[in-house]
Amino acid sequence: MGTPLDSREAQVDEVLDRLYEEYPDTDISLNFSTELELLVAVVLSAQCTDERVNEVCEDLFEKYRTAEDYAEASEEELADDIYGITFHNNKAGYLKGIGEILVEEHGGEVPDTMSELTDLPGVGRKTANVVLQHAHDVTEGIVVDTHVQRISRRLGITEEERPGAIETDLMGVVPEDDWRMFTHLLISHGRATCTARNPDCDECVLADVCPSERGDAAVDLASGEAW
Ligand code: SF4
Hints:
Blueprint: H1 8-22, H2 35-44, H3 50-63, H4 67-72, H5 75-81, H6 88-106, H7 114-118, H8 125-135, H9 146-154, H10 163-171, H11 179-192, E1 219-220, E2 225-226
Antiparallel strand pairs: 1-2
Helix pairs in contact: 2-8, 5-6, 9-11
The protein binds iron/sulfur cluster.
């Protein structure tokens, strides 16, 4: 079991320093070239892998280039065009609804405020944060996905359980300049080392500061259960 630093702020600083060094080039792994493509890709990525989304979007973005294209397509056709994505029927409805609202209320553009984005179907705070950060260069919060949720808890940075509460808690201890990269660094670490079922603590650069380190910690703080 590692020993976390004395304060959560110090723990965050140490974790950030080490992960910046470990993953110097980390960034969003969805492929996109316009704001609309990013919005669509993030909506499709809910409970689906980025790899699968990138595969499906290659053809999708060739066919659907504007908000009008999504608004005018039938849900059946859209569902067919995103087949292979989890919950493709629901998400087809979201894409059509998004296209309609963008056309009717935003001149076909992707809005740049949290409230306008979260008014779109299929767009929650997490999706809106990603779009704001990567399409508009606006950082209003911290994206809390499953990796951020799990690893922040394992490292003793938060004891909150729900994504909304975790985000609020993290915003109080992660320096604002690092909000965006905090997510990408933890996602990279979650994919490479600190996986959900079988974290490789022996190879982890955070092992000596991690209170969940499996060598001798009895409990996975992410779940609160014994390893
Ligand atoms: S891999 Fe192990 S030591 Fe590293 S952060 Fe995850 S639980 Fe902690």
